[in-house]
Amino acid sequence: xxxxxxxxxxxxxxxxxxxxxxxxxxxxxxxxxxxxxxxxxxxxxxxxxxxxxxxxxxxxxxxxxxxxxxxxxxxxxxxxxxxxxxxxxxxxxxxxxxxxxxxxxxxxxxxxxxxxxxxxxxxxxxxxxxxxxxxxxxxxxxxxxxxxxxxxxxxxxxxxxxxxxxxxxxxxxxxxxxxxxxxxxxxxxxxxxxxxxxxxxxxxxxxxxxxxxxxxxxxxxxxxxxxxxxxxxxxxxxxxxxxxxxxxxxxxxxxxxxxxxxxxxxxxxxxxxxxxxxxxxxxxxxxxxxxxxxxxxxxxxxxxxxxxxxxxxxxxxxxxxxxxxxxxxxxxxxxxxxxxxxxxxxxxxxxxxxxxxxxxxxxxxxxxxxxxxxxxxxxxxxxxxxxxxxxxxxxxxxxxxxxxxxxxxxxxxxxxxxxx
Length: 420
Hints:
By secondary structure, the protein is α/β, with parallel strands linked by helices. It is built from 16 helices and seven strands.
């Protein structure tokens, strides 16, 4: 698919089609079998629910990420997968990067993301760069080397800034670090006309801030890859574009966690720990139901990984003390609870397979809103991917350049504006 500049109309029509489909099946992708069984949609789709409930644990393990590929998959699962693929198809915005070895203490997968991102933004405006939420500045340093640009890195952790500055000096890259919180600080001396913002995996509000501030300050260009869209300061995502607001479609923080639940690149260890924690939490759930006589799931706060690594009795004791639950189960109670929890977890995962087709559409909904926001203000916008999902499932990229009318205002200076 060819990467083209997307007009406001094209972005708006794509967003409207995606919204209509997500709204049609909202009960399916918002249903949480882990918390409630039966799930509300089961009454409307009894055949699908029955088929899913009959799946063995081995079948679930094999097809959880792509249930439509099961040899006996119901037609509806296949239909959802095909519609999802059509609505979320994006062009590639760059060529595969050269196989340059990763720097020390940087994972191969992270380095592949940086290289792919850099290869996709090599046509940015000839301006100095702002490495947004830079960490140690691996992205900015790479772009500084490949594009020969001055780099301004912003990062709130002073230690990471110190390390990043040292790495930049060693690499011979002209790079200056600013210690600042991009959500709280004004950044008046950093985000200036004529500079370009680059942001690789800016989580939630961090990505929104990059777009809104970059647009308000007439930056030359913005290259943004979003991530963790549920990390919001508000309980509900607030659309940026007037086109998205007109659709009156609302997404909560909890609903936006769904894209992040994909296990495309999760290690075997991480998957094992997630399954174990799910079972342990359901054991606590069973014990609380028995204790209270109320057959309803009780939400529990997150737990340290070390608790999941321990034994089941230790997990129950730790969470009981922390949350003042008053649980003191016998060995028999625990065996009964674990039997219930194991089956409950299997059914939860089976019914949850319906949500697989909606992960990418939810992520793209936010991405389209962001792209449309820039297009509505006259920016030229390209939307695509910078790497395969096997490198990272969060692979969308917005490439935006200022319009001719704003370019005349923004190219003139890369210096701090005079005080008024």
